Amino acid sequence: MRLFALVLATLLATPLSAQTPQEVAALYAREIAPLPPLPPIALAALVAAEDRAFFDRATGLSPITAQVTQILNFPGWGLMRLPYQALVANALSHDEILSLYANRVFFGLGCFGLRDAARAYYGKALDDLTLAESAFLAALPRSPAHFNPERVPDKARARRDFVLGEMAKSGAISSEDAAAARAAPLTHQTPLASCR
Fold first, then answer.
1. DSSP letter string, 128-157
2. Which residues belong to the signal peptide in this entry (predicted)?
3. Half-sphere exposure (Cβ direction) of 149: Cα atoms closer than 13 Å
């Protein structure tokens, strides 16, 4: 009961930076509108890495929506962000939430968004990545330092292979494609580039 009272008091004392779905939609438009669409396989890899049931559940309950709420700089933490998550979920579609996440989440090396991460880790445009490379990048937002391919290649490869397995389970790729990508070596450019 004390936690509920603390959450309620914090919410009442903290003004919403966006109070309506229209204001959240305007925040989204400022963040994403000028960017070209992302490759479907890269988006499928992110969903597999973070929340395989993303498109099957209400967006407000999604870990991806929770991250977008943080990306949009809504205040609070944990349960205190739930009303903001609901606001984002009411304002944006699944595709818009995923696009915002993919373009703004942290991938390590000072990189925010898949495009920057593709350049930093592979020296390639996002559209030129292999399935194995896309799966590896999707593995990074969970913990970029923990899956750094130069420092902990075994953990990085295991996480990439997990993402490939989740993609196959969801039907985003075939089990044959997943097996072929798992067989590929864990690659990256040397040295890794920084986005800073």
1. G--HHHHHHHHHGGG-TTTT-TTT-HHHHH
2. 1-18
3. 24
Structure token digits, residue 134: 């896309």
- Domains for the chain: give ranges and CATH numbers: 17-104 (no CATH), 110-183 (1.10.3810.10)
Contact indicator for 144, 108 with CB cutoff of 8 Å: yes
Q: What are phi and psi of 13, to 5 degrees?
A: -85, -15
Phi, psi of 111 (to 5 degrees): -100, 135
Cβ atoms 50, 143 nearer than 8 A: no
Conformational region of residue 190, where left means phi above 0, alpha means psi within -120 to 50, and beta covers everything else: beta
Look at the block and give the residue holding tokens 């990256």.
Answer: 188
Q: Which amino acid is at 168?
A: A
Let me know: does 66 contact 54? Beta carbons within 8 Å: no
Residue-wise pLDDT tens digits, 33-86: 557 789 999 999 999 999 988 988 776 678 898 898 888 888 777 777 888 888
Degrees, nearest 5: CA angle 86-90-92 = 115
Q: Which residues contact 169 (CB under 8 A, 6 or more apart)?
A: 48, 52
